[in-house]
Write a structure and sequence with these properties.
The protein is of the alpha/beta class. It has helices at residues 13-25, 45-52, 64-71, 79-82, 86-108, 112-116, 153-160, 225-234, 240-248, and strands spanning 2-6, 31-34, 58-60, 121-125, 131-135, 167-169, 176-181, 184-189, 202-210, 213-221. The protein has a 5-stranded mixed β-sheet. The longest helix is centred in the middle third of the chain and has 23 residues, at 86-108.
């Protein structure tokens, strides 16, 4: 069997179209596994939902931003902190405007019940008996620090403890990961929409499995980021500056130079 692993699309239908085209041009897949964060912080949340909802044999779990859309929660500084710090206040306001914009688009198009039904994780057994667990951030949660390049071996071992899996797929941090934590292989296919530099191409993965084992192949495909910049401006997205910085490779992790 052949499976496409995608995550962190973030309302970017332009990037998603290129990934889906790349999958089709390579012979297609038997299943699609989606790792969460579909609509928020992008110009076309409804378009993304329309595309993934019609894909055959799709397994879909939720990400933290998918939960925020339904619950009204916000990432970033708490309101009490924001009231004491002007910079955090501006960030809090931007988050609130951005997620309200997305929630309005999703709700108006009738997708809110779909989001509310998404599961936290997904389990699957490959033909060779390997047990797979897929979750957005880390086992048991769709939020938090997740698995990053600076996650220590000790931290990773703690995260996968009790996961009862041979292969763990995660998303959330927008960086490619392929590491071992004891006997557990941990893979992050990176992000369809917002990978961190130096490689800004849309990222996903292909998992091929049979009775003899499995093979994972990371994939990258370029797309028109200038078209995304134009699109977020045209829809007057509240987080346009943040999205544009991703398109330009200007958003970085603290440990990136």
């Amino acid at each position: 069997m052949k499976i496409a692993i995608l995550g962190d699309i973030h309302g970017n239908s332009i990037a998603l179209d290129r990934v889906l085209e790349d999958i089709r041009s390579s012979g297609g897949v038997d299943e699609y596994w989606f790792m969460g964060d579909y609509a928020a912080i992008g110009h076309d949340p409804v378009g993304v939902m329309e595309r993934i909802s019609v894909l055959p044999n799709a397994r879909i779990i939720r990400g933290n931003t998918d939960r925020y859309i339904c619950s009204g929660e916000l990432p970033g500084p708490l309101l009490a902190e924001a009231m004491k710090d002007p910079a955090k206040a501006r960030q809090h306001i931007q988050f609130a405007r951005s997620f309200s914009w997305t929630a309005g688009a999703v709700s108006g198009a009738g997708w809110l019940p779909w989001f509310k039904k998404l599961d936290l994780d997904m389990r699957f057994t490959l033909p060779n008996g390997s047990k797979v667990l897929a979750v957005h951030a880390s086992p048991g949660t769709d939020d938090g620090n997740g698995v990053d390049l600076n996650t220590t071996d000790e931290e990773l071992a703690s995260l996968v403890s009790g996961a009862d899996a041979d292969l763990l797929f995660v998303g959330h941090t927008h960086v490619p990961i392929d590491r071992m934590a004891g006997n557990v292989r941990v893979i992050n296919p990176c992000s369809v929409s917002n990978p961190y530099p130096p490689d800004l191409r849309a990222s996903y993965g292909i998992l091929e499995a049979n009775e003899d084992g499995y093979q994972y192949t990371p994939k990258r495909v370029d797309y028109d980021r200038e078209a995304v910049i134009q699109a977020v401006r045209e829809v007057a997205h509240p987080a346009a500056e943040y999205v544009i910085r991703f398109m330009m490779g200007e958003n970085k992790k603290p440990w990136m130079k």
